[in-house]
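stage 2 :: seqdesign
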């Protein structure tokens, strides 16, 4: 952020890994992580305690995270454990943990990353945080984290990208994008319009019966859910674009970008300054964010006890 504010440019697309730490460095990091985690109130648990937490998960929310790199996770992880990079788990906790006061169990294989992540999470004060040491010879599952999406039992009708392209060319379809506005402005089906799902009904009411109503989202998942709900509300056949905007673009069909076609704003969605293409707007957003960040301590003091408990620095 500061680099961009200074007028410099970023390099994109590089993925150069950091060198692996030596054993001495690893031991020092482990000792420091154990110290700060203990002072933050992070507790270690064994397999028996974890099994008890799992048995009680219907009454008490349980989240299990492997905080190693994606490559390490996909090379072998404990069954049922989700992947979450430690820094992001702390910075964007609400994207990973949906229940306050939940039990959060972290694991890695070097004893450093789980303890360090756990120490920060514990200081935030919203959850009970534990660290689990995997067994020496664990049963591992290969591959990426399985994605499970809760949706309506009645599935929505889908339309393939090229079939939709023909319908649009014939004037027989109209497309509404229900993804986030920032994603819509980045890329959407050419000629589509953007609206938040809750207000779709008022915009589709004027679509003639001779035209198909088609909903699009980034990967098609959200569009299927919203299409089924909109169809039930209106009694009309509502289709979802199969594979979403990603499949449309992969088929090399025409896309658009920018705010043209936006019918509503986002509901309670913070617009990241990084999303601005205008340097002046981006810089203003950066400064607004930094002012908020710097003022957090004073804000916490004004609002009183929010459960945040920062550990005191270790005595030198």
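stage 2 :: out
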């Amino acid at each position: 952020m500061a680099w961009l504010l200074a007028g410099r440019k970023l390099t994109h697309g590089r993925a150069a890994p950091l060198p692996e730490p030596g054993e001495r460095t690893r031991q020092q990091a482990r000792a420091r992580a154990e110290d700060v985690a203990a002072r933050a109130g992070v507790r270690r648990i064994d397999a028996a305690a974890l099994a008890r937490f799992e048995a009680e998960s219907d009454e008490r929310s349980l989240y299990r995270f492997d905080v190693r790199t994606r490559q390490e996770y996909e090379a072998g992880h404990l069954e049922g454990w989700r992947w979450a990079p430690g820094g992001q788990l702390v910075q964007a906790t609400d994207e990973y943990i949906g229940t306050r006061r939940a039990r959060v169990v972290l694991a890695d294989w070097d004893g450093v990353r789980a303890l360090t992540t756990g120490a920060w999470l514990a200081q935030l004060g919203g959850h009970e945080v534990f660290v689990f040491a995997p067994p020496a010879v664990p049963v591992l599952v290969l591959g990426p984290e399985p994605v499970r999406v809760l949706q309506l039992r009645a599935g929505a009708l889908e339309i393939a990208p090229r079939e939709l392209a023909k319908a649009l060319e014939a004037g027989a379809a109209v497309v509404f994008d229900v993804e986030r506005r920032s994603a819509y402005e980045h890329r959407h089906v050419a000629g589509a319009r953007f609206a938040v799902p809750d207000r779709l009904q008022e915009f589709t009411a004027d679509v003639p019966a001779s035209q198909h109503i088609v909903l699009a989202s980034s990967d098609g998942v959200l569009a299927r859910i919203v299409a089924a709900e909109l169809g039930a509300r209106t009694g009309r056949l509502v289709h979802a674009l199969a594979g979403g905007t990603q499949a449309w673009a992969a088929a090399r069909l025409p896309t658009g970008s920018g705010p043209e076609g936006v019918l509503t704003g986002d509901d309670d969605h913070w617009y990241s300054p990084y999303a601005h293409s205008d340097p002046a707007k981006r810089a203003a957003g950066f400064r607004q964010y930094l002012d908020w960040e710097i003022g957090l301590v004073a804000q916490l003091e004004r609002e009183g006890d929010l459960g945040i408990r920062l550990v005191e620095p270790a005595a030198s």
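stage 3 :: structure notes
- The chain has three domains: 23-141, 157-256, 273-303.
- The longest helix spans residues 23-40.
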